[in-house]
# Entry
Amino acid sequence: MSMFWKQISLAARYSLLAFAIAAICAGAAGCHSADRREVGSQQASSAKQYSVRGKIIAVDAKDGVISLDTEAIPGFMEAMTMAYTLQDPSIAPGLHPGDAITAKLHIGGQGAVLSEVVVTRQAELNRKPDVQYHVPQPGDAVPDFQFLNQSGHRIDIRQFRGK
# Structure
């Protein structure tokens, strides 16, 4: 925790302290279990959310954590490098040091959590993918899939079978 605390800016420290104080006060205000459930749902809905962009420095796929060099997040913190927990740890193996990403940062009871992670630029374009896919050959059946056409109508590839 001390390493995390040293890496964040003074404004971010104040924000985190204010959030912790507000959470403690809200928890102390509850008198019976119904009140505590209500406070818990208010805290979940009041978790702060920010858009974040940055470059991956390191990936810990086992723990679902990445170290990210982020750009400044207006109204929250200056540009810095710190560790973030992935909301979906199963995506960690697909992330690599040097990749540029965008994501949603959620600050709440579970700390700094990233969701909706999108790789906007791969560090190594020649990297062999973790999963190998079958490349269709001439004469192979086209796998079933759906897509939206230019009019927003859902098209299913099955409607073209035999044509």
